[in-house]
């Protein structure tokens, strides 16, 4: 049998998994791996901070549906991945993080650049491994990729001691994973799904709530078919944006804390809520006791622990979202659905009334409104760009005013709310989709959390467009302070910031700025037409707030409107 | 949504005998704010498999969530909740009881009644081994307390389902 070093076995195993892209950062404990990596066809993207490497792998996974891979060294390299792992874990994104570790003989010795990364990341990974025997190496990699992408996806970390990477052993590719303790349920129980039909027949005000699970299961088409067949309106969580055509009459927009008036009202008034691939996060439900309190709830999710965690449901269905919707669509073929348009009319009329009386709105005055920037961006790109976001007001305005028309194209840190996510995620998305327009919608605060990744994007010629909504505040926290903390703006003033145009130029990118409303469209047009990395700064209304807003913990019908 | 009463549940968890599996299970309880009343773990007849017996307290919703979360851990093979099932339960306690000349006879009488064994005799203390369910151990401890207890080591509950008769 072929004798290979651990590093070679690792890389062969990665190639077996179809890995052709790695985001990483070298260091002492992974020098053996890097030494071999450059001899392979795997493309390596050198980030400027390990956090950026995980977010890039994450963005790559979200845009492509493949497993994102990240390689970093031991100690600080490993700890810098924790935020990225937690981000991917909360949003169920398949990522494999490879960390270097000190040689086995030094483990536990407080050696140079040693941390117990397996211990540290246990609660923020789906699973993790420390390889202590080279004989386990290729099987471990096989398992890690299988775990990352199967069932409810998630990040997996593999810790690789340096001496294992340099020693030799026979290599035999592992072809099959055999984990008796891990058997995710894909095929939903038909009896449970059959129970949904009478509820659909009886419902007068049905509503579909779709989430990230529909994106992950590639269930967007089935969902759209299901909704249209039943003439049932659709709302999504932040993670579900893109699974339903945004210009369809059945589309309600996002629900929750910053959801549309009609989506929140419909959720509250519906008599049947079909929830697919969601986990009823507190930002979605608001006050749990009043959430969808008039409705019977059908909850479809691949993770049994998501069901009945926060919300009591009438019909739980454990399984793959796409498969479940496919079966429901098949079952509906036999149903008499004549007259469904008439039957739905009062409900859809009601929704239309909510929409027309309380739409998402802003007034563009003398100062640039952030919403106007996003709306113009959406018009110019016809909603077909891949959007990544940072976190805060910029994220919510992006969700409200950029209407992505496909799944896998609204890439945002939903669960963890991780500032600094957008730019490195855009790098990953652009690497995954080189022909697509990728735009990072950012705030002046969060862009500075991983601004160093500008260098990565320039180095690899990634033509990302960064749109900074600069209000000179940590706007979302400032909004909380204005509304709920008597306007005491404790430490949210960010007026001291770099000159973003000059900063872009310093990185070798193009910087543009718009300070007046009439400059918004020309700057966007100019920036979008430039081939390389462009950073566009929009000096927006400083005290603009995100509306509607449901105060934390209040019923979602109690919205503060403009 | 959880309106039922807090109740004690004995969970038997079969896990792959992998490094870190105890930390995964214990970390789940601490990280999600679940209670552990006792925890007992050792290898089974299959060396790759360990059995953890955990006594936890919660209402039905919480215990359902605990079981689902346990099942999500990759190394967990099976979770059994003995609540509502027929099972046998034992705990082992080692107890150092003050045994002065004037109460030695009484201690030995109690040991006899509860079918314990004295496993170590010192100048002032008897170390007693007691097995039984939680009720028996508590009853013994309550009775023996006035005589003076120096130290206690308890295993926590162990349980297995009853076989069909």
UniProtKB/TrEMBL annotation, chain A:
<dbReference type="GO" id="GO:0005948">
    <property type="term" value="C:acetolactate synthase complex"/>
</dbReference>
<keyword id="KW-0479">Metal-binding</keyword>
<dbReference type="InterPro" id="IPR012846">
    <property type="entry name" value="Acetolactate_synth_lsu"/>
</dbReference>
<keyword id="KW-0460">Magnesium</keyword>
<keyword id="KW-0285">Flavoprotein</keyword>
<dbReference type="GO" id="GO:0030976">
    <property type="term" value="F:thiamine pyrophosphate binding"/>
</dbReference>
<dbReference type="Pfam" id="PF02776">
    <property type="entry name" value="TPP_enzyme_N"/>
</dbReference>
<comment type="similarity">
    <text>Belongs to the TPP enzyme family.</text>
</comment>
<dbReference type="GO" id="GO:0009099">
    <property type="term" value="P:L-valine biosynthetic process"/>
</dbReference>
<dbReference type="InterPro" id="IPR029061">
    <property type="entry name" value="THDP-binding"/>
</dbReference>
<feature type="domain" description="Thiamine pyrophosphate enzyme TPP-binding">
    <location>
        <begin position="391"/>
        <end position="537"/>
    </location>
</feature>
<keyword id="KW-0100">Branched-chain amino acid biosynthesis</keyword>
<feature type="domain" description="Thiamine pyrophosphate enzyme N-terminal TPP-binding">
    <location>
        <begin position="5"/>
        <end position="119"/>
    </location>
</feature>
<dbReference type="InterPro" id="IPR012001">
    <property type="entry name" value="Thiamin_PyroP_enz_TPP-bd_dom"/>
</dbReference>
<keyword id="KW-0274">FAD</keyword>
<dbReference type="GO" id="GO:0003984">
    <property type="term" value="F:acetolactate synthase activity"/>
</dbReference>
<dbReference type="InterPro" id="IPR012000">
    <property type="entry name" value="Thiamin_PyroP_enz_cen_dom"/>
</dbReference>
<dbReference type="GO" id="GO:0000287">
    <property type="term" value="F:magnesium ion binding"/>
</dbReference>
<comment type="pathway">
    <text>Amino-acid biosynthesis; L-isoleucine biosynthesis; L-isoleucine from 2-oxobutanoate: step 1/4.</text>
</comment>
<protein>
    <recommendedName>
        <fullName>Acetolactate synthase</fullName>
        <ecNumber>2.2.1.6</ecNumber>
    </recommendedName>
</protein>
<feature type="domain" description="Thiamine pyrophosphate enzyme central">
    <location>
        <begin position="193"/>
        <end position="326"/>
    </location>
</feature>
<comment type="pathway">
    <text>Amino-acid biosynthesis; L-valine biosynthesis; L-valine from pyruvate: step 1/4.</text>
</comment>
<keyword id="KW-0028">Amino-acid biosynthesis</keyword>
<dbReference type="InterPro" id="IPR029035">
    <property type="entry name" value="DHS-like_NAD/FAD-binding_dom"/>
</dbReference>
<dbReference type="Pfam" id="PF00205">
    <property type="entry name" value="TPP_enzyme_M"/>
</dbReference>
<dbReference type="InterPro" id="IPR000399">
    <property type="entry name" value="TPP-bd_CS"/>
</dbReference>
<keyword id="KW-0808">Transferase</keyword>
<dbReference type="InterPro" id="IPR039368">
    <property type="entry name" value="AHAS_TPP"/>
</dbReference>
<dbReference type="Pfam" id="PF02775">
    <property type="entry name" value="TPP_enzyme_C"/>
</dbReference>
<dbReference type="InterPro" id="IPR011766">
    <property type="entry name" value="TPP_enzyme_TPP-bd"/>
</dbReference>
<keyword id="KW-0786">Thiamine pyrophosphate</keyword>
<dbReference type="GO" id="GO:0009097">
    <property type="term" value="P:isoleucine biosynthetic process"/>
</dbReference>
<dbReference type="GO" id="GO:0050660">
    <property type="term" value="F:flavin adenine dinucleotide binding"/>
</dbReference>
<dbReference type="InterPro" id="IPR045229">
    <property type="entry name" value="TPP_enz"/>
</dbReference>
